[in-house]
Amino acid sequence: xxxxxxxxxxxxxxxxxxxxxxxxxxxxxxxxxxxxxxxxxxxxxxxxxxxxxxxxxxxxxxxxxxxxxxxxxxxxxxxxxxxxxxxxxxxxxxxxxxxxxxxxxxxxxxxxxxxxxxxxxxxxxxxxxxxxxxxxxxxxxxxxxxxxxxxxxxxxxxxxxxxxxxxxxxxxxxxxxxxxxxxxxxxxxxxxxxxxxxxxxxxxxxxxxxxxxxxxxxxxxxxxxxxxxxxxxxxxxxxxxxxxxxxxxxxx
Length: 252
Description:
Blueprint: E1 3-7, H1 11-24, E2 34-39, H2 41-51, E3 58-62, H3 78-83, E4 86-90, E5 93-99, E6 104-109, E7 112-117, E8 123-129, E9 132-140, E10 142-146, H4 154-157, E11 169-175, E12 186-189, E13 193-198, E14 206-210, E15 213-215, E16 218-225, E17 231-235, H5 241-248
Parallel strand pairs: 1-2, 2-3, 3-17
Antiparallel strand pairs: 4-17, 5-6, 5-16, 7-10, 7-14, 8-9, 8-13, 10-11, 11-12, 13-16, 14-15
């Protein structure tokens, strides 16, 4: 089994990178069978974006804090663990954002695309789903669209629903909604096209983030799932991403 190791810049990750490459070797990603990611969830998200062009499965090992997307770290019997691993497929979101000045920015998001107010002024948004205006004005701190993989991240902190892997759904979740006061968001079919207009963007500026990629002074955003892109993640049996998402719903 040809392994390519990708590690974050943190000292723990770099020390374990040295340990593992001495033991198992380090193959160029172009000839590797598997990418082994060392770090936390941030490193895994970056590796997931990078892996799209290589079309290789990812096996993560936690060297950070939370590590929701990662397996436990162990240097022993790594090829055997990978061979026995369960597989989960994740589809990213595509974001296309237009700024007030007319520039267009595109990015992929594994977890979520989120609009956020840039100043003390509340954000005002209008929301279209599949070219139909569903909400004339949402007054809030922001609004996000989350994938099942990202539903336990920022989406959960904003009181959005947890989505099982394979649910073929997206979560549309407001962040500190003021009007409509009782609106808690919506569940959308995975093939939905979401369009969000920023109302009065000069007075109420908003930024947009696709995971950790940010653009500011946004006028409008289009969001949809790239169902033609599938990112395979590998997990130790019984502790995969689907099982973790179920367990998270019963966490105290």
